[in-house]
C-alpha cells in the first residue's frame, strides 16, 4: 500500500492522490489572459497523474502582477481562457486549483527569464504598492497603500475568487508567501505601518485574515480554501515559524482548509539552507501545532521521499514543482516505482513497459 496514492478529502472534494503541482508562473500571458502556451503546459501536466494542479499566481489587480506576462483575474474577459484550463485539468482526473496573488513591492519587473529589476514606464512598468515605502533590494521604492487602497485589495481578492469559481476551479490558494504583498504585511522587516495594519502581530496578520474572510465569504462552503505561507524569512528579526504557527491557528478558525508551507522570498540576501525536503519540518510543525492539513513543498524529487513524507505523517500532501517541469509524467512514474497501478492514458499504453 502506498500512502502517496491514497485519496485526500478536504470539505466535499476528494483528491485522487497526495501529489500536487504547485503554482509556477509561466510569464506567458498578454493582458493577464491565458493562451495556447498555458493550455499545452497545464494539459500535459494534468495527463501526468497528479491529483491536484494549482495554476500559477494570477494577479487580483493589474498592479499586482510580478511581470507584464502574469496571468490575471481582475476582469471578466480573463474568465474564458482560464475556464479552458480548468476543463483541461479536470478532464484528465486532476483537481483544478488557482493561486490568487498580489506582488506588492515585488511587482513590475521582467518575466522570470528576463532581468529582475524594475521596469520603466516605457518598458511597460508601473509603480508598485506595499505596506510601507521600503524597496525590495535592487527594486524601485514602492508607494505605501492608504486605508482605501487596502480595502480595495481585499475586495479584489474576493472578486478574483468569484471569477475563479465561474471559470470552474475547485480550490483557490491565497498567495501570502515569497515576499509578495500579504507576506510584506506579515513581516516586520517590510511592514513599518503605524495604523491597525502594522506593529503588533495582530495588526500585521490583519490584512491576510481580512483577505481570507472575504474570499471565504464568496467561496462555496463545500469547496476547500488553501493559503501559501512562507514559514520564515530566514532572517533574524523577521517573520518566523512561531508566528506562522500562531497565524495558522487563527486561519483554522477563519476557514482555511490546508496550508501550503514554503519559506523565504522577502529578503533576497537571506541565507537559505536549501536541500532535499528542507521545508518539510515547517509543514510538520504547523500540522502538529495548529492542527491544519498541510502541503510540503521544496526539493521533493524522489518517489520514495514523497511516499515517506506522507506515510510518516509529516504532511498530508506533497507538491512537486521543478521536477514536474522537467518530467510531466513524474506522478505516473512514481506510481510505478511504488508498485501502484499507474493510470497511463490509453493513447500511450503501447509505449509502456510490459
Ligand atoms: C515558482 N514558484 C512559485 N510559487 C508561487 O507561490 N507562485 C508562483 O506562481 C510561482 N512561480 C514559480 C515559477 C517557476 C518557474 C518556479 C520554478 C517556481 C515556486 C514553486 O511553487 C515551488 O514552491 C518551488 O519551485 C519549490 O518547489 P520545487 O520546485 O523544489 O519542487
TrEMBL record:
InterPro entries, sorted: Aldolase_TIM, OxRdtase_FMN_N, YqjM-like
Cross-referenced CDD domains: OYE_YqiM_FMN (cd02932)
Lineage: superkingdom: Bacteria
Domain named NADH:flavin oxidoreductase/NADH oxidase N-terminal: residues: 4-337
Entry keywords, A to Z: Flavoprotein, FMN, NADP, Oxidoreductase
Cofactor(s) named in the record: FMN
Entry's transmembrane regions: none
Pfam families cross-referenced by the UniProt entry: Oxidored_FMN (PF00724)
Name of the molecule in the record: NADH:flavin oxidoreductase/NADH oxidase
Amino acid at each position: 500500500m502506498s500512502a502517496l496514492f491514497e485519496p485526500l478529502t478536504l470539505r466535499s472534494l476528494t483528491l485522487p492522490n497526495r501529489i500536487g503541482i504547485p503554482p509556477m508562473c509561466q510569464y506567458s500571458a498578454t493582458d493577464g489572459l491565458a493562451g495556447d502556451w498555458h493550455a499545452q503546459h497545464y494539459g500535459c501536466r494534468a495527463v501526468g497523474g497528479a491529483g491536484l494542479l494549482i495554476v500559477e499566481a494570477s494577479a487580483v489587480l493589474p498592479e499586482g502582477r510580478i511581470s507584464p506576462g502574469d496571468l490575471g483575474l481582475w476582469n471578466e474577459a480573463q474568465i474564458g481562457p482560464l475556464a479552458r484550463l480548468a476543463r483541461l485539468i479536470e478532464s484528465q482526473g486532476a483537481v483544478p486549483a488557482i493561486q490568487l496573488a498580489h506582488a506588492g513591492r515585488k511587482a513590475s519587473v521582467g518575466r522570470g527569464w528576463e532581468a529582475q529589476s524594475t521596469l520603466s514606464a516605457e518598458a511597460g512598468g508601473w509603480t508598485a504598492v506595499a505596506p510601507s515605502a521600503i524597496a525590495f533590494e535592487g527594486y524601485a521604492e514602492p508607494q505605501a497603500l492608504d486605508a482605501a487602497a487596502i480595502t480595495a485589495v481585499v475586495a479584489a481578492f474576493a472578486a478574483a475568487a468569484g471569477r475563479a469559481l465561474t471559470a470552474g476551479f475547485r480550490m483557490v490558494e491565497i498567495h501570502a508567501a515569497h515576499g509578495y504583498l500579504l507576506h510584506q504585511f506579515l513581516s516586520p522587516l517590510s511592514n513599518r505601518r503605524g495604523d491597525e495594519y502594522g506593529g503588533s502581530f495582530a495588526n500585521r496578520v490583519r490584512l491576510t485574515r481580512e483577505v481570507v474572510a472575504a474570499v471565504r465569504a464568496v467561496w462555496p462552503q463545500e469547496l476547500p480554501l488553501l493559503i501559501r505561507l512562507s514559514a520564515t524569512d530566514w532572517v533574524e528579526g523577521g517573520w518566523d515559524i512561531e508566528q506562522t504557527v500562531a497565524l495558522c491557528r487563527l486561519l483554522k478558525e477563519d476557514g482555511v482548509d490546508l496550508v501550503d508551507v514554503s519559506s523565504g522570498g522577502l529578503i533576497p540576501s537571506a541565507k537559505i539552507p536549501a536541500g532535499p525536503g528542507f521545508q518539510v519540518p515547517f509543514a510538520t510543525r504547523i500540522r502538529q501545532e495548529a492542527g491544519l492539513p498541510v502541503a510540503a513543498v521544496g526539493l521533493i524529487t524522489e518517489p520514495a521521499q514523497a511516499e515517506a513524507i506522507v506515510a510518516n505523517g509529516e504532511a498530508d500532501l506533497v507538491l512537486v514543482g521543478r521536477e514536474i517541469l522537467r518530467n510531466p509524467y513524474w506522478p505516473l512514474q512514481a506510481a510505478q516505482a511504488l508498485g501502484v497501478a499507474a493510470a497511463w492514458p490509453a493513447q500511450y499504453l503501447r509505449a509502456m513497459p510490459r
